[in-house]
Amino acid sequence: MERSLGDDSSPSPVDQTSTPSDPPDLSPTANTKPEQSSGNQPAGPGAAGEALAVLTSFGRRLLVLVPVYLAGAMGLSVGFVLLGLALYLGWRRVREEKERSLRVARQLLDDEERLTAKTLYMSHRELPAWVSFPDVEKAEWLNKIVAQVWPFLGQYMEKLLAETVAPAVRGSNPHLQTFTFTRVELGEKVQFISLQPLRILGVKVHSGQRKEQILMDLNISYVGDVQIDVEVKKYFCKAGVKGMQLHGVLRVILEPLIGDLPIVGAVSMFFIRRPTLDINWTGMTNLLDIPGLSSLSDNMIMDSIAAFLVLPNRLLVPLVPDLQDVAQLRSPLPRGIIRIHLLAARGLSSKDKYVKGLIEGKSDPYALVRVGTQAFCSRVINEELNPQWGETYEVMVHEVPGQEIEVEVFDKDPDKDDFLGRMKLDVGKVLQAGVMDEWFPLQGGQGQVHLRLEWLSLLPDAEKLEQVLQWNRGVSSRPEPPSAAILVVYLDRAQDLPLKRGNKEPNPMVQLSIQDVTQESKSVYSTNSPVWEEAFRFFLQDPQSQELDVQVKDDSRALTLGALTLPLPRLLTAPELTLDQWFQLSSSGPNSRLYMKLVMRLLYLDPSEVRFPAVPGTPGAWDLDSEDPETGSSVDAPPRPYQTTPDSNFGTENVLRIHVLEAQDLIAKDRFLGGLVKGKSDPYVKLKLAGRSFRSRVVREDLNPHWNEVFEVIVTSIPGQELEVEVFDKDLDKDDFLGRCKVSLTTVLNSGFLDEWLTLEDVPSGRLHLRLERLTPRPTAAELEEVLQVNSLIQTQKSAELAAALLSVYLERAEDLPLRKGTKPPSPYATLAVGDTSHKTKILVSQHSGVEAHSHSYSHSSSSLSEELELWKGLPHITSSAPELRQRLTHGDSPHEAPAGPLGQVRLTVWYYSEERKLVSIVHGCRALRQNGRDPPDPYVSLLLLPDKNRGTKRKTSQKKRTLNPEFNERFEWELSLDEALRRKLDVSVKSSSSFMSRERELLGKVQLDLAEIDLSQGAAQWYDLMDDKGSS
């Protein structure tokens, strides 16, 4: 773990710091040589010493055989002995290598120090003040202050760990009640070097920032013999850390500046990027030195440090009491959002080799995009040196300057991925440019990467939301749709949460969710009035329809202490899009409440920064370099057309209805306790077709999930189209892949129907049940009511409302549009909206009256939503799904209906679904029910399969309030064979609740249907007269 002096990345000799350690131990023989060389020493004691050494060595080797003897005595397998021996040998080999490297490095450092002290008049650690560097300034005066303060800082840390951290650890788990810190040392002076372990190598103060703050970067380096030992006496467990290195850039912000002493209101500190960390373990944690476990342990600790001191997290130290906007200082709003379009790369190097390197292949490139702690990974493009990704990511920028956009390109391999190059760009350049669309060269490799970077400002203006949403509808983005806003939630505290069983104090934590994105707070132990003071950030696709779900739970996640659901449209009407208040918790105590501050900001891209070059040769294309004064005028305007001129394929599209039903035998991805306990998965499905993508809901903890969701998409008859289906496991950080499959649309478009179980690829197990239906539009309105009724019967609660019609709009041109200010020609585009659905055309640069603004449907596929509008409203179409329902509906109503009986009638459809071996009944409604009291009844329908009267065969509809003609349209099923169904009777009772406080039900009428007398193969919707309890049989 110690850094080698020969490493290229090590600092220069001026800034080099050494690893603190004790002088190397001399061997026993080296210590005894002077004594043995003396001739006055008698031989007797020396011989006795040698005999004792031989006996000691023999005893140690005999002691090694004790575990073997014990294993044999206990009847254990030889494998246990071999495993223990392998672990011991691996640990010993790594330890010897580390000690040898440390001795060599220490010897080289000692020689260098001695040589430098002899040849130079002054130490390189004490450079004069006139020695400076171009980017940073030396601050030896600051290092002297740190050296003076360092011992007292160690005393403070020891007190903090003993009085604050240790009690918190003991209270977090009953098994850690004997946890103590036995030793805390932050490091002392290193031999031959008069300096403290923590040094500030350089200071840079940023000028030109806001006047109410001072911003500076400290290049810090900690190389010390820190020693922290802990002990859990109950389990005789000792562990610790001895020696650590930490290098990074720490940003310090002094704000706000005030007019009273101490002038500075607070100090904020954080690392802009993750610092480098190297730790030397001691005690039982020596097991972590085994190869493969050391890097894991360091990464876990780095994750903990990142969660505390790496952007967007920061440490705030208030210097004055009653400081205003502490939450804003602790977690300020981002400076902006950068939308990163990872488009393509070209000229990448080839890394794949075949036949032991004799045959050169290509590469399987993918890209990693990072901004601070935010990281994204693109998909892998197989066998391609000029990949096309076309993916979009959105990142929050907190500090400008300082943060960087880093893109690394790798070649995917089964063992270790090969590095192909990287590029870095300061986010300040994106802020200055607004929009950047460039090819960036890759450093450390060959080739270029194509990025389009857009700076999105944060606006507290709800009036621009519709403009942002319309703009986003025209943005092609994957794997996720573009965001319209961000939501920052400052979670402050809670009060009077309910206690656990036995009146025990809970350990509350909070889960905040928006759709499928969930974030969790830390746990506060043993209190019902916790203080969190944490911030959470969410991207919002449509704030008008989303809501924030808050769950306050005990740290075991099993006990819910309170809940809150907040519709986000409420923020749109708040001042400055901000809510700062107490919120009452539901499913909690009477006085339980939660204090939060919610801030919403819209993501706004300045249209003046966007440039859309015209395509040569297209109608309406415009040469921006032309200086013809007549261009843009109406002098040469063409005559107005009398009708549009779409191509012959316009309006001939079909609709594909996709039923995502269920999945089976999915692989389990969730792991607990570091992978020791195997969990399940939280699966959801992604669909991609015809340039559109859909996503199902997440089913929690289920390897055989049932979705029963329906999606609809407009498709054309172009050959070669495929439906791409991917299944993922939802996680807090990165979703795990559970498999994929593809379905060719040729079969579905030809047959009109497909219902299959599809095997998931690229995974060991799993299959997915899909049902695909082709819906062909028909230019007739006579059957619209029938289509609407069929949709109501197959509609599921977990899907969006099913469409009943298709509207196609061909947008030809516009004329005589007004000019912009300064008589500049506009860049027009059109937005068409029906209900909540809207689409935007492409933007034509510098177009004015007399210049045609064509959609390109005559030369492109009419399913392109940026060129032609296709909506599901207006002209009806007859669905090909559920033909048996359509048949029953057409036979159910007769123009000459019999009058209702004295108790009214109930309308039912009963048939047997032979494919699924189910008896199905649809309760459509009732009419002319009898009113016994002063108020109309609250009717519902109860169904029972006789002769069974248990709950297994009982079904009932929802209850309708105060009506004599209720409509239900609810479907019920019973799983049984056809022979068994013919032996049953269906008892249908219409009832009403007597009163709110009574459990009695008033019978309004009933009817018994002998299923043997009904044609269950062609069941029709019919009205049945209701009878009283005596006459129904």
TrEMBL record:
InterPro entries: C2_dom, C2_domain_sf, C2C_KIAA1228, Ext_Synaptotagmin_C2A, Ext_Synaptotagmin_C2B, Extended_Synaptotagmin, SMP_LBD, Synaptotagmin_SMP. GO terms for biological process: endoplasmic reticulum-plasma membrane tethering; lipid transport. It comes from the Eukaryota. Residues 319-440, 461-587, 637-758, 902-1024 form the C2 domain. Residues 30-41 have a biased composition (Polar residues). SUPFAM superfamilies: C2 domain (Calcium/lipid-binding domain, CaLB) (SSF49562). Residues 135-320 form the SMP-LTD domain. Binds calcium (via the C2 domains) and translocates to sites of contact between the endoplasmic reticulum and the cell membrane in response to increased cytosolic calcium levels. Helps tether the endoplasmic reticulum to the cell membrane and promotes the formation of appositions between the endoplasmic reticulum and the cell membrane. Acts as an inhibitor of ADGRD1 G-protein-coupled receptor activity in absence of cytosolic calcium. Binds glycerophospholipids in a barrel-like domain and may play a role in cellular lipid transport. Interacts with ESYT2 and ESYT3. Interacts with ADGRD1; inhibiting the G-protein-coupled receptor activity of ADGRD1. Interaction with ADGRD1 is abolished when cytosolic calcium increases, relieving ADGRD1 G-protein-coupled receptor activity. Interacts (phosphorylated form) with SLC2A4. This is Extended synaptotagmin-1.
